[in-house]
């Protein structure tokens, strides 16, 4: 019977443990917290968006798209649904997003924990692994509390996002100590801080927008969706989606600006007609009244001030060129990114061990008998259940291979 040591009791680690145990292996799960699966409880705003019917490699960033595709094809959405059905968990779908029927992340964790218990997986809690040493035909895992000898090791301790749940980068450090080259990590799916000092005035505003991220004149990312304004800068799904590219640009020391169109459904020609029509109908009103109803009132007043006008000024005293500046801001409001909100606020981290250093069975090309799964690898997905899907896919393949090789 193979002895498999799994580092990390998150989504990928529990999937690997269950899979390996079902194959007949003796599994020891090393978890630094006092319980497994803490990060799962916060996914999908507590509802646990655990997969997506629209699964494709285009929803991910990685160093090896071919291998990523092979992994997702080997264990994809259909296999994820079948796996959770085998645990007795009912799922439902909303616009392609998969959730447990009751929309409670706790039931997903309960189902996984119950299966670990049924399969007699040994879990060592508050067991921080300090180093791993290969030996003839196996490994010695050193941890707070002692050491264990195993035949195979699966690193599944996460990346750097949400360190309070245990993903503090220590598993990536273990991979580096074993000889793996590490791609620098940055927060992905995270809010962005902006340099302008006026965000408190528009905090709480939500609006549909097109957001384009630039470094100088180079477009590095573009997203559409509901923008959320905060006292420190910007948030919302579209900001999360482009934060990876922005944060790597910031890491490289490049200046990043966002150009925001808060009237995404109105093109330039419609814009001119709208402006002309309002000129005829509302000529005797104040600037604020003239622009009322175009976008959120807080944004209207901000754009008026940025254009050098006062909201209470009568339109008859304002030139067409001055009003055009306000409209231009609605179509291309430019703000500068100062920083991200850190790994503490990130849903996932980008970077880690390159996929080029593992094979499709998730085995390391650097250290035979070592397998890697989940966020420790340089794979990060968009919002929508894709990151948990990567955990299930990679964890499953690692569990199968480690128990059979």
> Could you tell me the strand content as a percent range?
25-35%
Radius of gyration: 25 Å
Order the strands across the largest sheet as they lie in space: 13-16-15-14-17-18
Report the count of strand segments: 21
Q: Could you tell me how far the N terminus lies from the C terminus, measured between alpha carbons in angstroms? A: 12 Å
Can you tell me the CATH architecture of the largest domain? 3-Layer(bba) Sandwich
What is the CATH top level name of the largest domain?
A: Alpha Beta
Give me the CATH fold name of the largest domain.
FAD/NAD(P)-binding domain
Query: What general outline do the C-alpha atoms trace?
Result: elongated
**Class based on secondary structure composition and strand pairing:** alpha+beta
Helix content: 25-40%
Parts with pLDDT < 50 across at least 5 consecutive residues: none
What is the count of helical runs?
11
Task: Tell me the major beta sheet.
Answer: 6 strands, antiparallel, barrel
| Average pLDDT score | 94
> What's the domain count?
2
The CATH superfamily label of the largest domain reads: FAD/NAD(P)-binding domain
